[in-house]
Specification:
The chain is mainly alpha-helical. 75% of the residues lie in helices and 7% in strands. Helix 2 (29-73) packs antiparallel against helix 3. The longest helix is centred in the middle third of the chain and has 45 residues, at 29-73. It is rod-shaped.
Length: 122
C-alpha cells in the first residue's frame, strides 16, 4: 500500500528510498529538501482551493437563505411559488454539496500539514 506522500506523488514518506526491491538507501539532503518543498507546495494549493471553496459555500448557503425569503413572499400557489420552491431546493443542494467539499478539503489540508511536519522532523 502506498503511503500518503507516495499517493500525492511526493515519493517515500520516510527518509529512505527503495531503489531496487529489498534494497533501501538513505535520501540525500537535497532529496529530503525537495520532498519537503513538494509537500509544502501541495499543501499551499490545497489551502488555496479550500479558501475558494469556503467562499463558494458561503455564497451558495446565502443563496439558499435568499431563496427561502422569496418563497415566503410568494404566498399564492402558482408559477412564482413553484419557481421559488425549486430555487430553494436547488440552493439547498448546492449549499450542502459545498459544505461536504469544504469538510473534505479541511481534512485533506490537515493530513498534508501533518505529513509535511513529519517529513521536516526526519
Amino acid at each position: 500500500k502506498a503511503s500518503d506522500a507516495e499517493s500525492m506523488g511526493l515519493g517515500p514518506a520516510n527518509s529512505t528510498a527503495e531503489t531496487e526491491p529489498g534494497v533501501v538507501q538513505e535520501l540525500s539532503y537535497e532529496e529530503k529538501v525537495s520532498l519537503i518543498s513538494a509537500c509544502e507546495s501541495s499543501l499551499a494549493l490545497t489551502r488555496e482551493e479550500l479558501t475558494a471553496r469556503v467562499k463558494q459555500r458561503d455564497a451558495e448557503c446565502s443563496g439558499e437563505d435568499s431563496a427561502k425569503e422569496q418563497l415566503k413572499e410568494a404566498t399564492k400557489p402558482g408559477v412564482m411559488y413553484m419557481r421559488a420552491s425549486l430555487k430553494v431546493s436547488s440552493q439547498h443542494s448546492l449549499c450542502e454539496s459545498e459544505k461536504q467539499v469544504v469538510a473534505a478539503l479541511q481534512k485533506q489540508a490537515q493530513v498534508q500539514e501533518d505529513r509535511c511536519k513529519a517529513l521536516g522532523s526526519q
